[in-house]
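Model it.
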Amino acid sequence: MVDVLVIGGGMAGVSIAYELAAHASVLLTEAEPSLAEHTTGRSAAIYAPSYGGPIVRALTVASGPRYRALETELDTPPLLTPHGSLWIAIDDDGVEHLAALPAEPVSPRRARELCPVLHDVRAAGWDDTASDIDVMALHHGYVRGLRARGGTVRTTGPVTALRRDGRGWRADVGEDEVRAEVVVNAAGAWADELADKAGVPAIGLRPMRRTLALASGAVPADPAWPLVADAADRFYFRPEGRHLLISPADETPSEPCDAKPDELDVALAIERINAATTLRLRSVHTAWAGLRSFVADRAPVVGAWPDHPGFVFFAGQGGYGIQMAPALAALGAAVVLGRPVPGDVPARDVSPR
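Modeled.
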């Protein structure tokens, strides 16, 4: 018996479990043999306050000071390494999208100074507040912190059944039965499937496949280059060691699954980036894919349906869950525990709707 059962061992699950464990007994369970096997473990996450919709950007900004505090709190190496992001527009569609981004306008000439392989840039925007995130250092830190606060982590424990038990819940986790006052559904792309097992209405989650690859070409990657992203969200690339990490910024509808890269998506990324640069990419060293899950308005979902108390969604974080994890976890824990939302954390109605 625990106060809170958190289902899902990715960044969403471990971050909210850590925050909850300061005030409640917590069991975190993951169906896979190890934590962070899906989206979190495959993320090319950046901390970019100019990336995402308004609530995402606000939560990202609020997470900045919390990242720095967590380095001490969780005894991690530096979690954020400054690395600017350059948004570029290569056509009218890109110019229109760029105008809506909160990035500092810079000239095409300045864009090429920041990344000399660019050509035919119509307009550009610079985000010097962006950073690379040490994703696994953050994830491991949250797990250590959860255990230090008395929380329990178990893997290879798929939840096969969930049912109401008076004011709480009973869950069949592997071969065991767990009783909890509150269930936190942090199951990522599987959040609606888990809700169905509990007899709780779905939130309309839409998993989307995102493809990434490490590639190289005629021009060696320069570690000083920023992350370069098409403002119309059709590709991005950034230096990754001796190679370039590339993506066509695809969002291909998918069932919840162990996502695999599609060769056509990798080829599309190469085609789009070669058209916008002088890189002449031709060699792919490895490719992978993950799932980004959204509800219709692309805002994170935090809270319970009024008729189903105690079953709390912590889902729909899309491709932004890691950059806003510290603030969103604090918000989620406040919602679960019925405590005031911390003053530095922005909140709006992010409950199921």
